[in-house]
Design brief:
- This protein is 52% helix and 12% strand.
- With 349 residues, the chain is an alpha+beta fold.
Length: 349
């Protein structure tokens, strides 16, 4: 029996909770036209045992990038598979003595988590779950992560993002070492990964590029960059053109919002939503863009997503006086969206 539908009607988090509570085994496939990509998640009795995006890095490449194995080690393991060895790639690498089982499990768990946390951020797309045993070809090694634990960690990361986004508003921020004449921070007492990130800072690569280079999640890199910046070890450059306080504390960009406003005026909510998403990619802290995106989501029937958007709008901390004046109205809209979402979901239970 297949469970399927659009994410605007059934949030991806709700899908995970349903599969967890039902202790389902099978394969969940999620596609997104907006992102032009897809994701696949294998479940075993409600736990996640494998996950990948269409453009994600394979486990073997991840191990090479992190320096856990060499290219030659990976080539030898693949050659054995091509010659008929039925073992998983990870099992071959462990048997060859090039990586410890504990390290393999840690990297596989990290790969699964990175994929799931990206999928949980999708508010549009289509999902389909097919009952049955997980696809063995997808599972490099049987690591099982409870879906509930992944959802709780995703919620924690969301809260932490809202804390660090004042200094790290988006992944295009470029960290740099402070100028030579800057005051000394004294003796550094950094954790190993903080040293690793600091060593990779070259003043050219943004956070997305650093995460790719280090083979770690964008969240881990952004959180570490935030800590290094707070300690005065690095300075941050925003190539997107984030307004400074001298330019005005309101983050008003009327020209960039014109296409979205015009599309809203014509009732073209899908076009307006896409335009606003482009604006928010460049400046995630623009209050009006985020508020209007919630309006688009409601117009498109994505009530749960709209409620989450307005919650994050209220936590921005960069609201203009005109936006702050709308706080009571937005709170009422958020509550109404949550009520509608709960009511619709009750009919599906």
């Amino acid at each position: 029996m297949a469970l399927e539908g659009p994410l605007k009607e059934f949030h991806i988090q709700d899908v995970f909770q349903l599969l967890d509570l039902g202790r389902k085994s099978g394969v969940l496939r999620v596609t997104s036209e907006l992102r032009q990509t897809s994701g696949t998640v294998s479940f075993d009795r409600g736990g996640v045992v494998a996950a990948s995006l269409a453009n994600s890095q394979p486990l073997g490449a991840r191990l090479v990038r992190l320096g856990k194995i060499s290219e030659q080690d990976l080539d030898r393991a693949r050659a054995l598979q091509e010659s008929g060895d039925p073992r998983r790639l990870g099992d071959i690498l462990v048997a060859n003595g090039v990586v410890a089982r504990r390290e393999l499990d840690r990297q596989l768990k990290g790969q699964i988590e990175d994929t799931i946390f990206q999928l949980l951020g999708w508010s549009e797309g289509y999902f389909r779950f097919e009952d049955g045993a997980p696809c063995e070809a997808m599972v490099e090694h049987p690591v099982r992560i409870p879906a509930e634990a992944l959802l709780m960690e995703a919620a924690r990361r969301h809260d932490e993002w809202s804390r660090i986004e004042a200094k790290v508003p988006h992944l295009r921020v470029v960290p740099k070492l402070p100028p030579p004449d800057a005051p000394s921070t004294g003796r550094l007492d950094l954790l190993p990964f903080e040293w690793e990130v600091l060593a990779a800072v070259d003043g050219q690569r943004d956070l997305h590029a650093l995460a790719s280079e280090l083979g770690r999640s964008e969240f881990d890199v952004a959180r570490t960059i935030y800590a290094l910046s707070a300690a005065g070890v690095i300075v941050l450059d925003n190539p997107v053109g984030k307004p400074t306080s001298a330019a005005g504390n309101g983050r008003d960009h009327p020209a960039s919002l014109t296409p979205a406003r015009e599309a809203l005026g014509r009732g073209e909510y899908e076009n307006a939503a896409k335009s606003l998403q482009e604006v928010l990619r460049a400046d995630p802290l623009m209050p009006e863009a985020r508020r209007l995106f919630g309006v688009c989501q409601v117009a498109l029937g994505r009530f749960r997503g709209a409620a989450e958007t307005w919650k994050s709008w209220a936590r921005l901390g960069t609201l203009t006086p005109s936006e702050e004046a709308l706080m009571p109205a937005v709170e009422r809209l958020q509550q109404a969206a949550e009520t509608l979402a709960n009511e619709l979901e009750s009919y599906r239970d």
